[in-house]
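Example (one chain per record):
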Amino acid sequence: MARPSKAPERRAELVAAARHTVVERGVLNLKLRDVADHAGMSPGSLLYYYPSLSDLLEDVQQEAVERFCVAREAAVAGEADPRARMRAMIGSGLPNGKNDELCVLLYELGTIARREPAYAARHIALYERQVRGYVGILEAGAATGIFDLTDDPVTIARNLVTLEDGYGLHLTQAVPPLDRSVAEAMVLSYARVSTRCSLEDPA
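Predicted structure:
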């Protein structure tokens, strides 16, 4: 009986090693040897599982996008009221600071999306998945009369995600110009105006 392949397990280990290396060193000057050293193997051994560093980083990006989206969806899943769902959604979309591993990873890999269509496609999928999450909350709030939307749900949702992205980039800088609580308050402010709702739970 043939022994089961360890390739999937080894690839998962390499994705983890690459993830940590990107966060520590950044992606612009990243070398295959950097990841191999972190994984405790030679560059040649790494190439047995991934033909190139780009192939490995594609899997890193795919895994990071999925983790981020699943975490956001889980944050709102337990909330029934659109106001609570909106607050939870906004709270789950911002980095906790410059050392937020997952958000830093996504921003770093986003620089490759400027040049590589495959990376850009996953970056777009990430954006649209977040937009859909907001659209669902906005439509539910409008349907129940809790929200009185100032624009169509897609436009508001896209603005919310874009605000998160902009503030998130600031929060992950070496010297952030504002802290997370301020950024969250700013996004919430736009959400209140665009929904004509205080977003507070009813008394």
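Caption: The CA atoms of residues 12 and 59 lie 9 Å apart.
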